């Protein structure tokens, strides 16, 4: 490692932090990069997520144009991995998805991705029979799914193989990081306290993990019902979106409601074998924060607040964050000349 190489810290080892690390290493080969986090892999909120590429309207950047750019860049990032031999190890796979509604045709459409996914169409009458009775509207589209139980270890392995370093610890303030030339803040909900950001709010989620090796297609229904297949035959059943809730314990009432909605949507799930239940606090912010700031003389690039869309849209926001960070480094070099 060049002793004059810039020293860079990435705070957070969830899907945002590790995706930033990959893009940064690709762009800046000689940098001395360290990831600092107190949570890794299965202990991150990223690991709970089903990770299907289906952004919702609550995911927003500063402008519509920036939001769409983040989504499009993310889509092609996942497509590039999907084309490689490492796709399975990385947890990235193609999946078909149905979205049904008993009440509203418009909820079966998604203007954010209709122009980029290979297929997005209305269902026919026969497809309405796939699910239980009473569903009046539906769409089918093809997309990708990223399982963070594989993606996070794959990214961490790649990061370390390229000379990246990992430190286990919690950063209480930016002033504790004076030796770094640049810091990427990818701390998710941790940014609420690190940055004193009152605009960052948790949206509580709860899901089942069930054995369903026969399930190859994802299903969405009204009232946040979703059924998403995964690798190794483990599917995710959800869910809830509880705004400003800090409860990290499994709620039996939410569990009963989730299972009832999912079985109503897809009766074949009745008596399915439950592997476990997980709870996570999605870090929600409008807009998602991707911007630079100088804190206590330290150059910081923030990348957090993705809500329930962190897995799918991490790449697009990470690309912008890295571009901002590289501009910061170049400006530092110019100012020293």
TrEMBL record:
Binding-site residues, FAD: 171, 187
Molecular function GO terms recorded: D-amino-acid oxidase activity; FAD binding
GO cellular component labels: cytoplasm
Keyword field contains Transcription: no
Top-level division of the source organism's lineage: Eukaryota
InterPro entries per UniProt: DAO, FAD-dep_OxRdtase
Keywords for the protein's UniProt record, in alphabetical order: FAD, Flavoprotein, Oxidoreductase
Domain FAD dependent oxidoreductase: start-end pairs: 7-320
GO biological process, one term: D-amino acid catabolic process
Names of the cofactor(s): FAD
Binding site for D-dopa: 226, 282, 308
Family per similarity comment: Belongs to the DAMOX/DASOX family.
UniProt-recorded name of the protein: FAD dependent oxidoreductase domain-containing protein
The organism of origin for this protein: Pieris macdunnoughi
